[in-house]
Amino acid sequence: MSERLLTLPNVLSILRLAGVPVFLWAIVSRHDGLALIVLALSGITDYADGKIARTFHMESRLGQFLDPIADRLYILSTLIGLAWREIIPLWFVVALLAREAVMLVMLLYLRKRGQIGLPVHFVGKAATFNLLYAFPLLLLAHRGDVLGELARPIGWGLAWWGLVLYWFAAILYAIQAQFVLSRTPHRAGAPRAR
């Protein structure tokens, strides 16, 4: 694990983070072309930063920190924008945000017991992949032409898979957390992580 800060994967993650407010402004102000470009670039750089980091041994603690934050910010900003535009229903937003709340409570509990976190599951990455590719298609589906009609079933298919996998990943994380906690019992008076 590298301690270097200035690596290509980290630069890509920082660029993804910088694109979040641009995307949110674009989607809320109905600049759909720009929103689609930013979202597509986010998906491409999300794949590229992980691939480059693994292939060229550039994995770093900063990258492990930035990548999930960028993913969650894109998902959150997209949910806000698409719900604001009434492209996705409110229940879908609530279902995804409820999962995030469950994960936050779980991670806070783990931290209280002295555990820093849990490794990322492939299922969680697959869920994020599905959601990040579903959202631009759902935005395209809002168009009233043939392209919109083609994008709608694919976008909703990916969205449903993303939602199901997101919750399935949360269950896997809960099982993993229980296993980790059972192997490292909390001792009375032991220092806790802050």
TrEMBL record:
<dbReference type="InterPro" id="IPR004570">
    <property type="entry name" value="Phosphatidylglycerol_P_synth"/>
</dbReference>
<dbReference type="Pfam" id="PF01066">
    <property type="entry name" value="CDP-OH_P_transf"/>
</dbReference>
<feature type="transmembrane region" description="Helical">
    <location>
        <begin position="122"/>
        <end position="142"/>
    </location>
</feature>
<dbReference type="InterPro" id="IPR043130">
    <property type="entry name" value="CDP-OH_PTrfase_TM_dom"/>
</dbReference>
<dbReference type="InterPro" id="IPR050324">
    <property type="entry name" value="CDP-alcohol_PTase-I"/>
</dbReference>
<keyword id="KW-1208">Phospholipid metabolism</keyword>
<dbReference type="GO" id="GO:0008444">
    <property type="term" value="F:CDP-diacylglycerol-glycerol-3-phosphate 3-phosphatidyltransferase activity"/>
</dbReference>
<dbReference type="InterPro" id="IPR000462">
    <property type="entry name" value="CDP-OH_P_trans"/>
</dbReference>
<dbReference type="GO" id="GO:0046474">
    <property type="term" value="P:glycerophospholipid biosynthetic process"/>
</dbReference>
<feature type="transmembrane region" description="Helical">
    <location>
        <begin position="7"/>
        <end position="28"/>
    </location>
</feature>
<keyword id="KW-0444">Lipid biosynthesis</keyword>
<dbReference type="InterPro" id="IPR048254">
    <property type="entry name" value="CDP_ALCOHOL_P_TRANSF_CS"/>
</dbReference>
<keyword id="KW-0812">Transmembrane</keyword>
<protein>
    <submittedName>
        <fullName>CDP-diacylglycerol--glycerol-3-phosphate 3-phosphatidyltransferase</fullName>
    </submittedName>
</protein>
<keyword id="KW-0472">Membrane</keyword>
<dbReference type="GO" id="GO:0016020">
    <property type="term" value="C:membrane"/>
</dbReference>
<feature type="transmembrane region" description="Helical">
    <location>
        <begin position="154"/>
        <end position="175"/>
    </location>
</feature>
<feature type="transmembrane region" description="Helical">
    <location>
        <begin position="90"/>
        <end position="110"/>
    </location>
</feature>
<keyword id="KW-0443">Lipid metabolism</keyword>
<comment type="similarity">
    <text>Belongs to the CDP-alcohol phosphatidyltransferase class-I family.</text>
</comment>
<keyword id="KW-1133">Transmembrane helix</keyword>
<keyword id="KW-0808">Transferase</keyword>
<keyword id="KW-0594">Phospholipid biosynthesis</keyword>
